[in-house]
Amino acid sequence: MDQSNASQPSRGAGLLLAAAIFALALNLRPAMAAVGPLLDLIEAATGMDSTTASLLTTLPVAMIGVGALSIRPLRRRLGERKGILLGAVLIGLSCLARAIFDGTAGLIASAVVVGIGVALIQALAPVVIKRAFPTRFGTVMGVYTTGIMGGAAVAAATAAGWAEAVGWAGALALWAVPAFLAAVVWMIAARDPAAEEPNRVAVAEGTHPELPFWKQPRAWALVPILGLGTSAYTLVLAWLPPYYVDMGQARTTAGFLLSGMTGAEVLAGVLVSLFIARFPDRRGPMLAAVALALIGLAGLVLAPVSLAIPVMLLLGLGIGAVFPLTLILAMDQIDDPVRSGDLLAFVQGGGYIIASLSPLAAGLLRDRLSDLSQAWTLMGLGLVAMAAMTLAFKPGGAKLQ
Hints:
By secondary structure, this protein is mostly helical. Helices cover 77% and strands 0% of the residues. The chain is built from 15 helices and no strands. The longest helix is centred in the middle third of the chain and has 37 residues, at 137-173. The radius of gyration is 20 Å and the shape is globular. The model is unreliable at 1-6 and 201-208 (pLDDT under 50).
């Protein structure tokens, strides 16, 4: 059933819905982004090695992937309103739990629950966006991804300061507050009909007899594109601050560098939202974004301290543009909002499972080599491969069923 003609929200309701989506997006990364600047404190308090500590990023990212693959039955049972609300509540509860269960087992368990909450929102919010804002989909998706990166920037910048005031566990737990606030805003905004499928029962019972995505090679081709692009994001989120701390930089400085990089990612997200409509061929912007990221990576390996500021700027602009572009590229392939949401869930499922391996691999390298330079090099090779795969997605080509 084509739902592209479903009723759109009024201007006021649309602004409130967009604000709620932005508030939710702000909470999708702080539980991970706040860990990196505090990793030395966490390792000292819990006795974790780098490989174990990497699970605090690897597990949420992996759960995002698993949750995305399971999103259709979840949407069938919950719908988008309740599913997104549950996601926000789970994020808030898992952050709050870190103030109480601050040992290795508690932190790892909270990482799993965070991943489930983020998975619910990330799989369902783009469906709402495409249905409620069909003519401004690219713009609102840019706002959504900007919120994701903005939350990471704030978490990275404030982690060290909050840790000095309330301890590292308290600094992690404070992110429960905006998560619960976002849940309240969503409950108010989601009363608009555009926040839910017009006929969820019909959709749930299988009104899409099209060929399953796992039988379509083009759908599989999108998985490593999103996976490699997200790998770059998750790798720097987890290991950029420890990389600088290992080189003798202060914990606060390392946190501000990550915040500066994520601030550049926010700028990139804004630029994508403003200008992506002018580029129906997404390949040009994607290649430009990858080029910026590669230059930044070269500086990160060759002159990480002396060129720290330009390196963070280039990395942030590159990675920050790659992230929304991969999502937009996937959702370009199908016009129907629900069907395109199912595609994005399939692509994110495999892609985030791939992306979850990059922090783990970096942790293993750090334990064995005491150096993360090789991780940045491997990330650069992954981005080159991703850019090459993107070339197959020319506008006007074959679309998915």
